[in-house]
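Let us work through a complete example step by step.
Step 1: write down the sequence.
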Amino acid sequence: MWRMWKILDYRRTVVLAHVGMAVLALLIHFILLSTESFNWLEGNPYGNAESAAEVAEAAVMPQQREV
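Step 2: predict the structure and record it as tokens.
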């Protein structure tokens, strides 16, 4: 391992690794934004009204107690 760091500058390697991961993260987010089902900026986050109703029904709400 120490021979590898004699050939490669570790500061440049770490910076390039972080830049590469940031580019990959942006690429994944833009790909998801271009799809219809994973675009969280436009449209209904639940997909459609029927699935929104199903989510609302599935939510467990505590019972109201009468005082």
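Step 3: interpret the result. Residues 2-58 form one domain.
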